[in-house]
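ARCHIVE CARD
Drawer: 12
Card no.: 0347
Subject: one protein chain, sequence and derived structure
Cross-reference: see card 0346
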Amino acid sequence: MAEEENTESQGGKSKTMLFVAVGVVVLLVAVGVAAYLLGARSAQNATADVAVEETEKPEGVGPMVDIKDFIMNILDKKETRYLKASITLELEDEETVAEVNQRMAQIRDSILLLVGSKTFSELSDLQGKLQLRAEILVRLNKLLQKGKVKAIYFTEFVVQ
């Protein structure tokens, strides 16, 4: 009789273990399916994001106009400092190129006055250069009447 009780308790344990094992397998399969479905959705969202970003980019590069080198004094309390810079303007269209070429003296003057008011410490770090680029863009777009400057590129920038 003791053997019958022992066999019944072992049979009960093996049935319980079987149910636990089946439950674990079902749970793992469910987690795998959920991960696959979520991964597929995030991949679709990432593809959609890329498509949105690509449609927001400008269609192409506009006409470029180079401005001759600038060599100018910049403010510094301790010593005389110089800036040598070359700038390229990206414009909206060819009509704007003609206007920029007509107003080149005004454009150079505006840039010289702006840069001449900057200190060495303002121009020596990345943030200062980005700020200068933004300020030049605003000034030039106020100056132009027919078109706009899309972007400004420093093709040379040496502070000494």
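Annotation on reverse: The first strand starts at residue 64 and ends at 74. The CA atoms of residues 25 and 31 lie 10 Å apart.
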